[in-house]
Automatic annotation (TrEMBL):
Family as reported in the entry's similarity comment: Belongs to the plant dirigent protein family.
Subunit structure: Homodimer.
Function, as annotated: Dirigent proteins impart stereoselectivity on the phenoxy radical-coupling reaction, yielding optically active lignans from two molecules of coniferyl alcohol in the biosynthesis of lignans, flavonolignans, and alkaloids and thus plays a central role in plant secondary metabolism.
Name of protein: Dirigent protein
Xref: InterPro entries: Allene_oxi_cyc_Dirigent, Dirigent
Annotated GO biological process: phenylpropanoid biosynthetic process
Length: 164
């Protein structure tokens, strides 16, 4: 239902805090390159990763530990290495929430993610359920990254969403 001028609800601002777990290796991988390059990736050389596109279904947790935190949702989408001069990804994700007040709702995140910049900001450009007609931003900070392989990364998210 589209709100009208006579039935419109007041807009709210919601703050969500969680951790995003991205694992691209091993039997519990949550992200898979869909066009893997033959040459190995060197995290010190952005050009070695340029053009790689990855599909992900990454868990979101209430704390930084995947084993000792509640899973509160999943980040489903894709990211691609979009820079030849720095480690920066173009991200297109749906964040589906599975716990708490917003269980069953989702929001869409879109933007440029320069992974070695802390903090960094990405846009919230819509959503479903409680987040219909939403807009906002997410502040990201890398909590942990395996610098040897880049295979395991944990990112802290602070999300601010305006919605009805």
């Amino acid at each position: 239902m589209i709100p009208t001028t006579t039935s419109a609800k007041l807009e709210k601002l919601t703050h969500l805090h969680f951790y995003y777990h991205n694992n691209i290796a091993g039997p519990r991988a949550t992200a898979v390159p869909i066009n893997p390059k033959i040459q190995p990736v060197d995290l010190r050389d952005p050009a070695s990763l340029f053009g790689r596109l990855t599909i992900a279904d990454d868990p979101l947790t209430s704390g930084p530990s995947l084993e000792n935190s509640t899973v509160v949702g999943s980040a489903q989408g894709m990211y691609g290495s979009a820079s030849q001069t720095e480690m920066s990804f173009a991200m297109v994700f749906n964040f589906a929430l599975t716990q708490g007040k917003y269980k069953g709702s989702s929001f869409c995140l879109l933007g440029r993610n320069p992974i070695f910049t802390n903090p960094r900001e990405l846009a919230i450009v819509g959503g479903t359920g409680a987040f219909r007609f939403s807009r906002g931003y997410a502040m990201l900070k890398t909590y942990y990254m395996d610098m040897q392989t880049g295979a395991n990364t944990i990112v802290e998210y602070d999300v601010y969403i305006r919605h009805y």
